Amino acid sequence: MAVLELRELGHTGLKVSCVGFGASPLGNVFGHVAESDAIASVYEAFHLGINFFDTSPFYGATLSESVLGKALQSLNVPRDQFIVSTKCGRYLEGFDFSAERVTRSIDESLARLKLDYVDILHCHDIEFGSLDQVVNETIPALQKLKEAGKVRFIGITGLPLSIFTYVLDRVAPGSVDVILSYCHYCINDSSLEDLIPYLKSKGVGIINASPFAMGLLTEGGPPEWHPASLELKSVCKAAAVHCKEKGKNISKLALQYSLRNKEISCVLVGMNSVGQVKENVSSALEISSAEKSVDDLLQEVDAILGPVKNRSWPSGIPQN
Ligand code: NAD
Question: Does ligand 1 come within 6 angstroms of the Cβ of 155?
């Protein structure tokens, strides 16, 4: 039986499944999810070979962490069988990347997750804070959490790609282990690709989140709060309709596109039902047998998305 590929995550020694479970939907970020469905989704994911689960105290104002904690506990497997990342610095109340807040944050997250440690603690959406504070205060505080055994590896996340070079150029080598970029390696926006050689030179593992561009590349379309322009939304919708007319599903194409780049260790997909988990795992397993037909459809979809290629949306505060 085919199994999901495991990929090395930078220099961490972690081997993550190429498809990771994004748990923001468990915080009802994309609509209500019953707790039983959430738990069943995590169970299904784990048993289909997904070993990496990502959450944050921000998702659903801590709900995602709590539900993921229950779901992981109910797996009833040894702790080293799964990899968990959560985040710090972004909360319902706002952003706070101070050493005091992130140090308190990990204890709160561990309690909700019912874990003794997380594998990765990310500074969440750092473009909304002072990047100098992240370099000089937050990351050193996270190093102490690493020494205390609460965190195995440190990451940074955010939308503008420039945040990664800003931080990685200023921290001591090895103090940031991974980066999590989102919406920049999907069919409509592949701008992360140009940054990969730099990230590899810095020795950081690369996680690519949101292969469906947070719902833009799905038949159902994005949620109300999606920050894309109306033009971007309507062109993505046209691409989804084109795929449907050809008897194909744009989400399958989008996931297969993101997974093809093996320099990216993990593609994090937000999932909220057993059906979605099964569909996404089978899309990942089908890649090698589907290369030619994927290529043909990709070219057509690429042509539709051409006018909005690599267009994003503003995120964060002005930095000095
Ligand atoms: P995504 O692009 O993965 O899309 C998620 C949406 O697609 C959800 O509505 C989900 O229900 C739906 N979906 C999943 N499988 C589907 C399928 N087969 N067919 C149709 N629809 C399907 O966006 P995301 O959830 O925002 O990103 C994935 C994960 O990455 C998040 O859950 C989170 O863990 C992480 N993430 C982190 C950051 C950050 O740190 N700043 C930002 C974005 C995402």
Answer: no
